Protein: Extracellular solute-binding protein
Organism: Tahibacter soli
Amino acid sequence: MDARKLLAPLLGAVLLAAVGAGVWFSNRRLTHDQVQQIEQARHVSARGLIGSEKESYFSDPKVQQALAGLGITVATEKAGSRTIATRYDAKQYDFGFPSGAPAAASLKQQAKAAAVYTPFYTPIVFASWRPIADILVANGIAQRDGDFYYVVDMPKLMALVESGARWKDLKDSAAFQTNKAVLLNSTDVRTSNSAAMYLALASYIANDQQVVQSQADLARVLPVVSPLFLRQGFQESSSAGPFEDYLALGMGKAPLLVAYESQLIEFWLKHPDRVNSDMVVLYPRPTVFSKHVLVPYTPAGERVGQALETNAELQSLAHDYGYRTGGAVKGPEVWAKAGVKVPEVLVDVIDPPSYEWLERMIRDIESHYP
């Protein structure tokens, strides 16, 4: 037999094996490269500009660990919500996370974001003290609801404030016989969302319980709402400072403080010995929700927003900081187990004005500051 006829099949087999090995090696390299690309895409670092009240949430090692498990590292810088709305910069930040829907709407427009994320929210409340709440009850302005919280008739309270009434002149005010005017203490409306939400609420009352949405509405409400801020004296730029003063200095400093429900809930959860103290929460009726809306500027920002809104662990951790969430467990039922019993559902809730109208009111008030 010809040797070439014997070698030909053998050489063909060797060649076929070599080609197969090459294909296998090529595919193995391709798969490895794909894995590397997927791994790089899975781990992202994001930088965000956030409201100060969310700083403790993002600083929590459990939150950081939950985010890391999803391949996300987040670094934050805090600022007032109005400042966040005017500092859109996709080169410096991956997302903006203000504390109110109006500021977020402005950011969304600037960023041309296809979607935004609302992982949690909290209503505006008044942080106060039981003796103060009882004075308001005696004067027909508030009522106790259950054993834990009070409800305030907001039109009646605003009428009392507008009249220039002083605490010592109110019925049954022996526990707070001071010459101080009845005022709500807030943060600086020029910088802070909690003050802006108070403005939204006060302007609604002053506008015959209608949301401000025209120049005629502005002319009607500004003479009423501007003094609410201008009469206060010094105001801090973010919500953390006034709440610390409320805790440290008692009712003499701020008998009625505009605050977030989340601030009080977080404090009580961390200090259960204070649940039955004279600290009380008053819910204005109507009230307004402060929605914490994350606006992504980049794909990394999208990852953060999706994680905060959909991850069950991150939603549960938000409850530890007093935030209400969507989903099957919203927060109040968790807090009740710790003795912090607040309304599960708030029905009488208004919408804030659009960013444009709210900004016009703020600018007008700003023009009257020295």
Summary: Residues 23 and 315 are 47 Å apart (CA to CA). The chain has two domains: 43-120+291-336, 123-290+343-366. The chain has a mean pLDDT of 89.
